[in-house]
Design a protein that fits this description.
membrane; 248 residues; 78% helix; mainly alpha
């Protein structure tokens, strides 16, 4: 991968995480009067506030998902180097198209947060207030870890060179198409894990770090993919059951 592109990508990831840490710091240190509070009625949300929540989710998706795409980007770049008609800078188009999928998913997450605030299932601090919401999310995430579709998407993400060889398309448009298709597979693998942020608190840094670590582990570990998925799925199910029956 060109060193300038690598530095740019690393800077983007670092900036995204710095923003998340700053947002978390604000929520714990600023007085309530200086913080944004969601309107109590759905119709009362102005467009700038919706766009602000969307931007927050988009940055969160960039921070959590870009580290996991580095092996695929590296494989794509190496293939570009072996093709005299391809430019290593096509990696920029690949990565941008991949990220566009997760930015699109951020719109869905924004709509969910808007709804959950309107139902008073999230606090003004974006923390979960609804036991059954948290339990349902964990159970959905746990069950999905056992699904064949999840594991098919995960296998796709774990075989970068296989994907590049089978899906190679020339030129800038080809790079955009490949990045978008890989983004869709990655979304199919990880969407349920992202929903967990609604259960543990939207701006819960520990939750972000753990989910990011799990996503990267699933995609890069030498451990069998199904064993990883089934193990994490079992933990999610147990946590969901705990929310249902053990929490007051």
């Amino acid at each position: 991968m060109p060193i300038k592109l690598f530095i740019s990508l690393g800077g983007l990831i670092a900036s995204a995480w710095a923003y998340l840490f700053y947002q978390s710091w604000q929520m714990t240190h600023l007085p309530m009067s200086q913080m944004w509070m969601p309107p109590s009625q759905l119709v009362a949300w102005p467009l700038p506030e919706l766009l602000g929540v969307f931007a927050m989710w988009a940055i969160m998706m960039a921070a959590m998902m870009l580290p996991s795409v580095l092996p695929m980007l590296n494989a794509f770049n190496r293939y570009c180097l072996s093709d005299p008609k391809a430019s290593p800078w096509y990696s920029l188009y690949f990565g941008g198209s991949y990220l566009a999928v997760w930015i699109g998913f951020s719109a869905i997450l924004t709509a969910m947060q808007w709804l959950f605030h309107g139902l008073a299932w999230l606090s003004p601090m974006m923390e979960n207030k609804h036991t059954y919401l948290a339990a349902t999310i964990f159970i959905i995430a746990g069950v999905y870890q056992f699904s064949s579709f999840k594991n098919a998407c995960l296998q796709h993400c774990r075989t970068p060179f296989g994907y590049i060889l089978n899906e190679w398309r020339p030129g800038k448009i080809g790079a955009l198409q490949m990045g978008f298709k890989h983004g869709l597979s990655c979304l199919g693998c990880c969407w349920a894990q992202m929903l967990i942020m609604f259960a543990v608190g939207v701006m819960n840094l520990t939750g972000m770090i753990l989910i990011t670590g799990l996503v990267c582990l699933e995609k890069t570990s030498l451990i069998d993919a199904k064993k990883l998925s089934y193990s994490s799925g079992s933990l999610f199910l147990l946590w969901g059951i705990y929310w249902l029956f053990a929490r007051p």
